[in-house]
Amino acid sequence: MTSTAGVDSRILRAPHPVPGAPDNWKRFFSFNTDAKVIGIQYIATALFFLLVGGLLAMIMRGELITPEADLVDRTVYNGLYTMHGTIMLFLFIFPVLNGLNNLLIPCMIGAPDMAFPKLNAAAFWMVPVFGVILMASFLVPGGPASSGWWSYPPVSLQNPLGHLINGEALWILAVALSGISSIMGAVNVVTTILRLRAPGMSLGRMPIFCWTALSAQTIQLIGLPALTGGAVMLLFDLVVGTSFYRPEGGGDPVLYQHFFWFYSHPAVYVIILPVFGVFSELFPVYARKPLFGYPFVAGASLVIVGLSLIVWVHHMFPSGVPQWMRDVFMVTTMLIAVPTGIKVFAWLATLWGGKLRLNTAMLFALGGLFNFVFAGVTGIMLATVPVDIHVNNTYFVVGHFHYVIYGAATMGVYAAIYHWFPKFTGHMYYEGLGKLHFLLTFIGTNLNFFPMHPLGLMGMPRRVSSYDPEFAFWNVIASLGAFLLGVSIIPFLLNLVSSWVRGPKSPANPWTAIGLEWLLPSPPPAENFEEHVPTVISGPYGYGTGRPLVEHQAEIERSLLQA
Amino acid sequence: MTISPPLDDAPTPQGHDVAYANHSLTGFIIFLCSESVIFLAFFSGYALLKLSALQWLPPGVEGLEWRSPLLYTVVLVSSSGTVALAERCLSRGQLWGFRSFWLLSMAMGAVFLYGQASEWRSLAFGITSGSFGSCFYLLTGFHGLHVLSGILLMALMLQRSFRPANYAAGEQGVIATSLFWHFVDVIWVMLFLLLYAWS
Ligand code: HEM
Ligand SMILES: [Cu+2]
Fold first, then answer.
1. Which ligand is closest in space to the CA of residue A332?
2. Is residue B2 situated within a structural domain?
3. CB B128 to CB A243 under 8 A?
4. How many CB atoms sit inside 10 A of residue B89's CB?
5. Is residue A511 over pLDDT 70?
6. In a domain, B90, yes or no
7. Which candidate, A79, A53, A145, A77, places its Cα nearest to that of A466?
8. Predicted confidence (pLDDT) at residue A22 exceeds the cutoff of 80
9. CB atoms within 10 A of CB A11
10. Which pLDDT value is given to residue A318?
11. Is A356 left (phi over 0), alpha (psi -120 to 50) or beta?
């Protein structure tokens, strides 16, 4: 290591092609092993599928604006929500988070790349492949899978047409492939974080985003094999005629539910933990205060991993599980509120008395936090067995999880995209368009998903294309909110494309943030710091303390300014 | 053990990468932990189905013949020993010793697979004969696939041992492969107990 006396100007010369530069757009269509390219590939693919899944949602809300089933019929509607849910989860939210992992983790810990670059690219390219497989189910006889995104047998095992290639089989195949791809991604993330940190960066000096990514990917490693195994068994039952879940042959449909929820409950933390990480990165920057209670925020992630793996049965309260199981799982579920609450209080304490800069990224983070707190309240309600049994198959649940998944997670992802956009593209985004995007999203989310709670309490079932006219009022409001959300995508995409192509050039550290990634030029060169990795000498949130993060920080910053 | 040259998919060995030379092995161990969950899921599914079944074995089947499977089990388990011997030779720099024990282990794995294939052929029930049949073929088949992958991995390492400059002081690939092999063996012992001994 030679970077002791003064900073080598090589960090600034970007000897390799710069991933974010617009003239390099062709690399985004190639088998590229640079984590930053892969990150952008993931995010772009995910945004494409957000549009597809969103289009299906628009059709659903269009259908639900009137009580009658007049736009699409019952069977089409079944296919719509199944595909909407599957696309949003497996092709939008997981890939978009994998994209953030790829962009942020190596830069944040000072690694040249992910631990296994080829495996990384292979995991990414599986996404379009299973995307195509899933979409192909619209074209096969019998139409797409339509037994819900959880695909419970025996419903999912019905194949009236007798075709080998049917929507359900394609669905299972896509989900199994998605599992394999995500396991590959998780191995990469965990190895990178454990083995490739810069000198001086102990786990206790690691940015919270890396802590949450580590926790989320640990869940993937433990949970996904169960889902993938369960899906393979489902595929065998459907295609070969085995009897894992077929009661006629001695199988047990509830077994599938265990496999499915053993993964799919923790999966909500795979989604929300990185968003917690984003909040923890953004609030200190824009409030200019150190993150309150760093060790608790980091440790709470690990506690959440442990708890999330032992609560899955709360999804099966109505499935005839014994009463003692219900009690045990009710209590463990409620315990999760403790580490989560710790985090929320840490953020509030961070914001408290801070001088807030309300730019687009911060607005999205604050809006996401607001929605998350609301979802937390309804979540506790759902964890109590009697309430759950009452509202289980109603719109209350749909409202609750969309607050988490759209209100908090998707908005957190938007916050991350805006915050790190200048770093990875080298261009500033337009604040005006960004704020318009935020306004439409925040109002749209609440208009769309709040009415689902009164609807659920009144007893409107989910997964129906027509309903009793007494539910009409709230449904109209929800649909209007949904269309607002649909419109909100326009300023977003417009902003991304136009800023990237001709937005103003971004300095290395536009938000005066602390973190290794902000010591890199914007956009960072292919191998990040190359061999001149700075030595970390303090924790990541020294806002307002004037404490340097790395050795020779002043010189690095000076040389970046000259560039 | 000194640090060996990085595997193919390690980032180009520049500067500080040398310090991270062992990360491939870390990744592989993490992967193995994850894989063991699939088997765990299959095992618990098997136990659950068996405990709640009204009629477990397919009609006309009395139970599994366990004598020859036990024999093949002994072969497979002892191949863990020969793999360990091969590793010991390698760490002492005896390349030919390594190659012969390695080859012997591959052969033992192949014998095991042969035994499994002949057992499958002789069975009176198929994969669609109720949940027992489904579980039996899924578990043994999935495990068999792992044995096959292990043999292929070993073949790859054997071929690499003829490349000059490799294997001067041991290889992470060999360590990873042997870990995988022990893993597959342990899984088989559990499988044998579940399928053949627990009735
Ligand atoms: C414009 C935004 C959205 C609208 C209008 C919308 C609307 C809907 C509607 C009407 C349903 C059917 C509910 C039912 O009858 O059970 C649904 C289900 C679902 N949505 Fe969304 N959604 C949106 C965004 C999202 C996002 C961003 C995600 C995930 C990241 C998501 C995940 C799901 C899931 C998992 C289901 C359950 C599907 C199933 O029951 O099989 N949604 N959504
Ligand atoms: Cu849950």
1. 2
2. no
3. yes
4. 18
5. yes
6. yes
7. A77
8. no
9. 25
10. 78
11. beta
Q: Which atom of ligand 1 is nearest to the CA of A481?
A: 5
CA distance A225 to chain B (A): 5
**Ligand 1 atom closest to A397 (CA):** 16
Residue B141 vs residues A207, A227, B146, B174, B181: alpha-carbon distances, Å: 44, 19, 9, 25, 16
Q: Give the structural domain span for B135.
A: 18-51+66-197
For chain B, the domain total comes to 1
- For residue B53, the model assigns a pLDDT of 84
A435-488 pLDDT tens trace: 999 999 999 999 999 999 999 999 999 999 999 999 999 999 999 999 999 999
* pLDDT tens for each residue of chain B, 199 residues long: 333 444 334 334 443 444 456 788 899 999 999 999 999 999 999 999 999 888 888 888 888 888 999 999 999 999 999 999 999 998 888 889 999 999 999 999 999 999 999 999 999 899 998 899 999 999 999 999 999 999 999 999 998 888 866 655 457 889 999 999 999 999 999 999 999 988 7
Q: Using a 6 Å cutoff on CB, does residue A418 contact ligand 1?
A: no
Question: Cβ B23–A191 below 8 Å, yes or no?
Answer: yes
Q: Kindly give the distance from the C-alpha atom of residue A303 to the centroid of ligand 2, in angstroms, as a whole number.
A: 16
Nearest to B14 among A191, A262, A531 (CB): A531
Of ligand 1's listed atoms, the one at least distance from the Cα of A82 is 41
CB A357 within 8 A of CB A418: no
* Interface list for A 230-269 with B (CB within 8 A): 230, 233, 236-237, 240-244, 249-252, 255, 258-259, 262
Query: Nearest ligand to the C-alpha of residue A441?
Result: 1
Which chain B residues contact residue A226 at CB under 8 A?
37-38, 40-41
CA dihedral A162, A167, A171, A174 (to 10 degrees): 100
A325 to chain B, closest Cα gap in Å: 16
Distance in angstroms (rounded) separating the CA atoms of residues A102 and A188:
10
Sequence letter at residue B152: L
Residue listed under structure tokens 């969309």: A402
Least confident residue range of A20-29, A163-172, A250-259:
A20-29
pTM strictly above 0.90: yes
Q: Do A249 and B9 touch (CB under 8 A)?
A: no
Higher pLDDT, A328 or A55: A55
Q: Would you call B15 and A531 a contact, using CB atoms and an 8 Å cutoff?
A: yes
Q: Among A84, A263, A441, which residue has the most ligand 1 atoms within 8 Å of its CB, making it the best to mutate?
A: A84
Task: Quote the CA–CA distance of B140 and B76 in Å, as a whole number.
Answer: 14
So what's the pLDDT on residue B17?
A: 42
Residue window 190-229, chain A: list those with CB within 8 Å of chain B.
Answer: 190-191, 194-196, 199, 221-226, 228-229
Predicted confidence (pLDDT) at residue A15 exceeds the cutoff of 60: no
Is residue B7 assigned to a domain?
no
Give me the DSSP letters along B14-73.
Answer: -GGGGGGTTHHHHHHHHHHHHHHHHHHHHHHHHHHHHHH-SS-SPTT------HHHHHHH
Q: Is A106 on the interface with B (CB under 8 A)?
A: no
> Shortest CA distance to A72 belongs to which of A443, A464, A429?
A464
Residue B61 lies in a domain: no
Tokens 């786990």 locate to A203
Q: What confidence tier does A9 reach under pLDDT thresholds 50, 70, 90? A: very low
ipTM value for the complex: 0.88
Of the pLDDT bands very low, low, confident and very high (cuts 50, 70, 90), residue A19 is: low
Task: Identify whether the C-beta of residue A244 lies closer than 8 Å to the C-beta of residue A257.
Answer: no
Residue B117: CATH number of its domain:
1.20.120.80
